[in-house]
Automatic annotation (TrEMBL):
It comes from Bacteroides stercoris. Its EC number is 3.6.3.14. Belongs to the ATPase epsilon chain family. Residues 4-80 form the ATP synthase F1 complex delta/epsilon subunit N-terminal domain. This is ATP synthase F1 subunit epsilon. It is a peripheral membrane protein. The keyword Ion transport applies. The lineage of its organism: Bacteria, Pseudomonadati, Bacteroidota, Bacteroidia, Bacteroidales.
Amino acid sequence: MKGLHLDIVSPEKEIFTGEVDSVTLPGTLGSFTILVQHAPIVSSLKAGTLAYVTKDGEERALDIHGGFVEMNSNRVSVCID
């Protein structure tokens, strides 16, 4: 099965790019988790914690002020403030 690719960028720099098992995001209507084969989605993000689990099982988290996420074809692109 094809993995889940995550790109996290801010206006200043690329923060992370790589394969992950899951991504949890603070959506404006509530927190949600993206896994492999998730339906395509575009959503705005509010202030909160963006968390993801890398392929080696490492859990990472970032506090964000907001942004946007797009998920399509097992590729998650996140632009954060």
